[in-house]
Write a structure and sequence with these properties.
The complex is a heterodimer of chains A (192) and B (126). With 192 residues, chain A is mainly α. Chain A has a single domain, classed as Ferritin, core subunit, four-helix bundle (Ferritin). Chain A is 65% helix and 0% strand. Chain A is built from six helices and no strands. Chain A is globular, with a radius of gyration of 17 Å. By secondary structure, chain B is mostly helical. Chain B has a single domain, classed as Cytochrome c-like domain (Cytochrome Bc1 Complex, Chain D, domain 2, Orthogonal Bundle). Chains A and B meet through helix 3 and helix 5 of A and loops of B.
Chain lengths: 192, 126
């Protein structure tokens, strides 16, 4: 089994910076302010607004799944301390994403999807730290692709910007996890 | 009469095919893009893919579909999947799959080739 060496990160400082940056940049989520919501709904057709809600809800579902997956990893007893800390930090990012997405869906008049009770994760196949990391990496890679498939079709540019901001965060998670697995952290010039 | 019979025989043997040949190995890599929501064997954010070919849209057991998908009515095959994967929101307005789609015909063919192979694998889909 590969031993993962990770230096403890200054979690709080970095995370606060990220979250405050997200909150400010995601005017999207400026939907939260009310006026912008009226503007959005005033200019977009019902169908495009519905599509935005669908897209955000898809992303929300994936975020909720990621939160549950990191919880599974954190509770597995398979993670070394610095790796577990990192998993909890990443889970915190996903919670922040999910919170912002749920608020945006609600502000658009939609109903945020609820987290599933059971994601049927392959618990029997997670027998080592690397198994957990590889599983998390597969979800993060999928999340990168999901946001890449969301950004160009979101009607509202601020929502697209917010989704791109989250995409960047997921890509960083994926790279860190790949690095921890001894893989090339950034295998390509473009994500897909 | 013989010509007419030949026409009908030809019609019956017609199987919709994609314009390009798919490569399942490349499709397996493309499938990693789907894994935030989908797995082969389990329903998660999206429905399971095992048993996909020949299944009626919106009918995977235990998955809560949108009403739009339940009403869509098609049987999943190479052609219907190709159309849906290219632009899910346009093909089935109201679907829960909020994703732009796979625009490259070759990538779609590869993905479908992989799905066809993987979803009939008894080791994965028992």
């Amino acid at each position: 089994m590969t031993i993962v060496k990770l230096e403890p990160l200054p979690v709080q400082g970095k995370r606060r910076t990220f979250l405050s940056g997200f909150t400010l940049s995601a005017t999207a989520i400026a939907l939260l302010a009310g006026k912008e919501q009226l503007g959005l709904i005033g200019t977009a057709s019902a169908q495009t607004t519905n599509n935005d809600v669908t897209i955000l809800n898809s992303a929300l579902g994936a975020e909720q799944q990621a939160i549950a997956a990191y919880q599974l990893g954190a509770d597995s007893g398979l993670l070394q301390k610095p790796v577990k800390d990192l998993a909890v930090q990443f889970q915190g990012h996903h919670k922040a994403h999910a919170d912002a997405l749920a608020k945006a869906v609600a502000k658009l008049g939609g109903k945020p999807v609820a987290a599933m009770k059971d994601y049927n994760f392959p618990k029997d196949k997670l027998k080592s730290q690397n198994d957990v990391l590889a599983f998390a990496a597969s979800l993060e890679k999928g999340a990168v692709s999901a946001y890449l498939g969301a950004v160009p079709i979101l009607t509202d540019k601020d929502l697209a910007k917010a989704a791109a901001s989250i995409l960047g965060d997921e890509a960083m998670h994926w790279a860190v996890l790949r690095n921890a697995l001894g893989q090339n952290p950034v295998p390509d010039a473009f994500v897909s | 009469m013989r010509l007419l019979a030949a026409f009908f025989v030809g019609l019956l043997s017609y199987a919709p095919a994609l314009a390009v040949d798919g490569n399942a190995e490349r499709g397996e890599e493309i499938y990693t893009r789907c894994m935030a929501c989908h797995t082969l064997a389990q329903n998660r954010v999206g429905p399971r893919h095992c048993g996909l070919f020949g299944r009626k849209a919106g009918s995977a057991a235990g998955y809560q579909y949108s009403s739009a998908m339940k009403k869509y009515g098609v049987i999943w095959n190479e052609e219907t999947l190709d159309r849906f994967i290219e632009n899910p929101l346009k093909t089935v307005p109201g679907t829960k799959m909020g994703y732009a789609g796979v625009k490259d015909p070759q990538e779609r063919a590869d993905l479908i080739a992989y799905l066809k192979k993987a979803t009939s694998d008894p080791k994965v889909c028992d």
